[in-house]
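Hey, sorry to bother you again with one of my protein questions. I've been puzzling over a protein and I'd love to understand its fold better. Take your time with it, there's no hurry, and the full record follows here:
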Amino acid sequence: MSTMKDFLQIELLHFGKYQIMVYHILALAGIFIATKLILLIIYRIFLRQIKAKNYDEGRSLAFYQIVKYILIVAAIAIGLETMGIKLTLLLAGSAALLVGLGLGIQQFFNDLVSGLVLLIEGTVTVGDIVELDGLVGKITEINMRTSNVVTRDNIMIIVPNSKLVGDNVINWSHNREATRFHVEVGVAYGTDLDRAEKLILSAALKNKQVAKHPEPFARFIEFGNSSLDLEVYFWTKNMWEIEYVKSEIRKEIYKAFNSNNITIPFPQRDIHIVSGGGS
């Protein structure tokens, strides 16, 4: 027993009035392993509830992140106390350091606070489809300072949380009803517009992603330079694949126009050459 006690009290490092002994390292390792196990158990509980559809996935993962950070902070505090480092002294020293750094870390703390706001309020959650600065992406992870967003091109973007809180963000996932989109097409001058409108409406309705209610509609929008311009409006809940939906509708329109001898004109110019008479 005394041999074990002597082993645990072997000094590994010494700085100032603080000593790091073997039992400090073992205690820290125990705290680390215990924290990881607790987090793993909590995470599996949340996953089980999500699969059972008892909880919303986005909010469940957000709540798990809050629990995770609380446990990590608690584990760090316990570890420091185990090392004999007084938290009151550490906090006092940190406060003086933060005052000294001043505005240099203002944005850093702004992102941290924004991350906490996102996790608590749930205005943006994991799995949401958002549009930020014209870029559409899906939230895959929300951390304390940054969030991970995957675009439709499968590009991972790391976004500071302050942008998700402070900037104008469109959260398409919060739209419970279908969202309206449109596809434009031009037809040659002289085309029967009523017939063309029926064809583009039929093309939109053939797509399974297009909602039947509200019903799609078509309208003639303007006299173009080389064409009569039409638009077909439709509603869909498939925001993530909307460009694919539009592409399929365009292909159906093209097929319908070809079958009915309706021309989609291309821009053209008439050039008149006037030759001047010699003096």
About this structure: The CA atoms of residues 18 and 84 lie 7 Å apart.
